[in-house]
Amino acid sequence: MKPTMGSKNQSVKQRSSSTTEREFGGTLGATCIPIFLPLTVLYLISVVRSPAASVLQWPPPLPPTGHLWAPVAPALLLGWITLHVFLYLLPCGKVSEGLLLKNGTRLKYPINGFHALCISVALLMLLLWTDAPLGSLFELLLPLAVCAMGLSFVLSVYLYVRSFWAPHHALAPGGNTGNPLYDFFIGRELNPRIGGFDLKYFCELRPGLIGWVVVNLGMLMKEVELRDSPSLAMILVNSFQLLYVADALWNEEAVLTTMDIVHDGFGFMLVFGDLAWVPFTYSLQAAFLVVHPQSLSPVGAATIVLLNGIGYYIFRKSNSQKNQFRRNPMHPSVSKLETIATATGKRLLVSGWWGLVRHPNYLGDLLMAFAWSLPCGFSHLLPYFYVIYFTILLIHREARDERQCRAKYGLAWDAYCRRVPYRIFPYIY
Ligand code: NDP
To answer: Were 294 and a residue from 168, 275, 309, 377 both cysteine, which residue would form a disulfide, CB within 3.0 to 4.6 Å?
Structure first.
């Protein structure tokens, strides 16, 4: 989708058809969140590395400003992103089409994220083999997070400015309010591209998500430096989260039907989430274990593995069922499921996983999130940050999706809600 200079008529049309609905607290939220979230990332990293690791300690263990910067950090970050741009452009894997856009066309996407993960892991193994000091990522967490956040701001400004050259049909349904702060935050353009390179699709599953695996491995190597071998708790956290990232990339095509790609514009909210929030807050459990080693009994470890396995099974099966149904409802694995018709011509599943609760995939995801915190024991709240934050995020996301589905499907959605009354947790919520 190349940016084209809009004509005068087009810009008049753009202004007259701007969206009015606001999410995330509207302008106030859009002003406060970009300040609050970066401070939260710095705060969490500082607390997790402090001896007390307590979110209740006062004053908070803020680092000296000298600890926020290291010249190697921007070089590492830019090198990492360049590597992933190169891997994205590699002509391997298939090319898939996205959903139908407003102008009746479909965009093409390379499905080679799993290749990018495998090549990244191979390169990391090579680095380990050459005794590269991967454990020093622990000391570099703050400078790397600062650089990732700086990059997120720069990219978001670029995206906001270039969106004014995008044709009207290329704007996201919710990102065109005319309020610069809100539109900058929520994202104006739906699928910003440089030539064939899709910026949102690239950021969604590659540098940040695979970066999370690298940060985790760095924490594991730091533990090896300090205590000669990785603990069982650290191995579990690394393995669970590697499985989650590998799964996302193995099923990369499924991201093409998610809310992020189909509905949300590419603005600060997603850019920051993809490039800074995911790698530097999702890795908190591994960072916590470096300073606060935990011993796990075999029974404890087996129970946690079982919980993660159950969560993963529900998550994967339900996501695959819906994805298969949306791509080909006649496929034998979904053709016998009960459905209800909607006025749009699309049908809604009311049996199988999507007949259990309205978001079975969120249920599985939350069970896994809990399993990732348990290896850190019960002495601190901080390793549970992810599961607490993620519960809030998914409850909020479920409400957003519900609003969009009600607008799309009207009475049929109400019928689905009556038939499947629980949202995420059966008989609870
Ligand atoms: P979902 O995959 O849950 O998709 C929601 C869409 O599915 C709806 O908009 C609707 O779209 C369709 N749908 C809803 N109900 C039905 C039904 N009964 N039958 C058929 N289609 C239905 O969206 P998300 O993007 O929120 O989640 C994808 C995955 O990503 C989840 O597993 C989630 O847990 C995970 N996730 C992880 C995050 C993380 O940070 N770790 C963050 C966010 C999500 P339509 O009808 O138009 O097809």
So the answer is: 377
